[in-house]
Specification:
Blueprint (H helix, E strand, L loop, with lengths): L13 E5 L2 E5 L7 E3 L23 E11 L5 E5 L5 E10 L40 E9 L9 E2 L2 E3 L2 E3 L2 E5 L5 E4 L6 E2 L14 E2 L3 E11 L2 E3 L1 E2 L1 E6 L13 H11 L11 H14 L5 H7 L10 H8 L6 H9 L4 H4 L30 H11 L25 H6 L11
Parallel strand pairs: 1-17, 2-18, 3-4
Antiparallel strand pairs: 1-4, 4-5, 4-12, 6-7, 6-15, 8-11, 9-10, 11-12, 13-14, 15-16, 15-18
Helix pairs in contact: 2-3, 5-7
């Protein structure tokens, strides 16, 4: 990772919260928690690290930082409680019970096709007081270092009159924000049993999400601050596994398609191509089919360094090998209805028996497909370094790259299929 020269202009004119989307996770440990990953390839956790002394699952805290930028948009430094007054404000809410049932993703054409999907009706349709279904404890603010306590808990929201704790705020030794979610509690308002994985009327849980804001005063002067968002999700029972298609890749593609970001000028084998293969190989531990095709000793194992070396080479000798790998990834217009192309994952319109739509299966993004095509033709940076060790902590990442790294951690690589 190259290090640009230190900015000549060190005057901070604005600030931004990073990561832009932070992920916290519920856990049933009363007090135990750990901080979620802050680099793209964190070292494996030690055995038992996710549980407390009683065996209860620790909560995963989302940590947010503030970075100061100059007028040219360059990172000048991370701002902490040592050099700025930072007040954090977070609002958490859980409105699922007042929203629509989950039948199918609502942003795809199949959602409005009655032959493809059941109509998406409101959850708890017989409850007229819709506000009683939404758990909304309001905002909490926190300032300073090493702060915690009952004043920062989201504990006054309720579901049909039953109090629900959604989490709390804390700060670390530098005044960075820690957001902890709920304790993995779900229940029925009237004791009705759950009959499906979703859409159980009368039920609630303690996941949530909401905006993260900060007011920052540097030398007594208030700075404009870009805000962020926090998601409180279920536990991550496979922290070393990565989805083939990630939320980071999806958002990159959204901005490219909207004309708000350019198509990458260069294709990096290590950054753009190899992770697609590595993520498929990583899923060998959760899926027998992936193990047979992409796992250890399999034909397309990213653990096979001799095979990866061929793909990482720009030599024409291996052009056909590169092209075959690129062709293996699904393209809706070419082979969308076939289950054989990669990635072997269900899409947003999946059904059993299979739905008559290409979105029965997942695809990588259009931007990723373009990068694959350029790589196959030899238009890429051959930057693979066998045995290279990625940064183990965010402090080991060059300052200019820290915000981007925080945006691309494993927890922000949530899967979005279809």
């Amino acid at each position: 990772m190259s290090t640009p020269p230190t900015p000549s202009d060190t005057t901070i004119v604005r600030a931004a919260i990073h990561p832009g989307i932070g992920v916290a996770r519920v856990g049933n440990s009363p007090d135990g928690f750990y901080i979620g990953p802050e680099v793209m390839e964190p070292p494996p956790l030690s055995p038992g690290a996710l549980r407390d002394a009683t065996g209860a699952l620790k909560r995963e805290a989302a940590r947010f930082r503030v970075y100061g930028y100059n007028a040219a948009g360059e990172v000048v430094k991370e701002l902490t409680a040592a050099d700025a007054t930072i007040e954090w404000t977070v609002t958490l809410a859980n409105k699922k019970a007042a929203w629509y049932q989950f039948q199918i993703a609502l942003d795809i054409p199949e959602a409005s096709n009655p032959t493809m999907a059941e109509p998406s009706l409101p959850r708890n349709a017989t409850v007229k007081d819709r506000e009683s279904l939404a758990i909304m404890p309001g905002a909490r603010s926190i300032c300073g270092a090493r702060q915690s306590g009952s004043a920062y808990q989201f504990d006054n929201g309720d579901f049909i009159g039953t109090a629900v704790y959604l989490g709390e705020l804390r700060t670390d030794e530098a005044g960075r924000l820690l957001v902890l979610g709920g304790r993995g509690h779900s229940a029925s308002a009237d004791g009705s049993p759950a009959t499906t994985f979703a859409n159980n009327d009368g039920w609630h849980d303690d996941t949530s999400d909401g905006p993260v804001h900060a007011t920052v005063k540097l030398g007594g002067v208030a700075l404009p601050v870009d805000s962020a968002w926090v998601l409180v999700a279920p536990p991550n029972y496979g922290p070393e596994l990565r989805s083939v298609r990630t939320m980071a890749a999806l958002m990159d593609d959204v901005f490219v398609q909207a004309g708000m970001l350019p198509v990458p000028a260069r294709v990096s084998f290590s950054r753009d191509i190899l992770p697609l293969l590595q993520h498929q190989s990583g899923l060998q531990w959760a899926n027998k089919g992936f193990a047979a095709q992409f796992g250890w000793g399999a034909p397309f194992s990213a653990d096979n360094e001799s095979w990866v070396a061929k793909l990482a080479s720009k030599a024409d000798t291996w052009r056909e090998e590169r092209q075959q790998v690129a062709n293996a990834f699904r393209q809706f217009a070419r082979d969308g209805t076939s289950p054989l192309p990669w990635p072997w994952m269900y899409g947003d319109a999946m059904n059993v028996p299979p739905a008559d739509t290409p979105r029965q299966h997942a695809v990588i993004t259009d931007t990723q497909l373009r990068l694959l095509d350029r790589w196959a033709k030899g238009d890429f940076d051959a930057d693979w370094q066998p045995g290279a060790m990625p940064p183990a902590t965010i402090d080991a990442v060059p300052l200019h790259a820290q915000p981007t790294t925080l945006h691309r951690t494993p927890d922000t690589k949530l899967e979005k299929c279809g």
